[in-house]
């Protein structure tokens, strides 16, 4: 059996990279861009992203909203700390809430840096609030 050849990046991955290039050029207001990206999402990603935006802004008001590879993200000192990736972004079965290496979540030799989200229950929202506060502390 011969090794499977890589077909390169998917169209969605190429689009995300193009988004990142635009972001690096620093065009636009981060908060407005995040809200526009959220508004353009399909359900249930849109509702989840709206709620996450409110949770993150309340838990860590010092984080600045910005887009990161075309996704809503939240940064401290211009470095992304956490981000949301809707399920539709790469056609996955769940949305993802993740943290970059700038997040202060270290816990021994191994710890999670992203979470699958299928819905935002009160317990999930409380966990996210705790994680965001710890990540920025």
Q: How is this structure best described in words?
A:
Helix content is 40%, strand content 20%. It has 137 residues and is an alpha+beta fold. The chain is globular and about 40 Å long.
Keywords for this structure?
4 helices; single chain; five-stranded antiparallel β-sheet; globular; 137 residues; alpha+beta
In short:
With 137 residues, the protein is α+β, with helices and mostly antiparallel strands. The chain contains 4 helices and 5 strands, in the order αααβββββα. Helix content is 40%, strand content 20%.
The ordered H/E elements are: HHHEEEEEH
Helix content: 40-55%
Q: In this structure, how is the largest beta sheet organized?
A: 5 strands, antiparallel
Average pLDDT, rounded to a whole number, is: 90
Structural class: alpha+beta
Strand content: 15-25%
Output the radius of gyration.
Answer: 16 Å
Low-pLDDT runs: none
Oligomer: single chain
Task: Report the strand count.
Answer: 5
Strand order of the largest sheet: 1-2-3-4-5
Count of individual helical segments: 4
Overall 3D form: globular
* Separation of the first and last Cα atoms: 51 Å
How are the secondary structure elements laid out?
Elements: H1 11-24, H2 30-40, H3 45-59, E1 64-68, E2 71-76, E3 79-85, E4 95-99, E5 114-117, H4 122-136
Antiparallel strand pairs: 1-2, 2-3, 3-4, 4-5
Helix pairs in contact: 2-3, 3-4
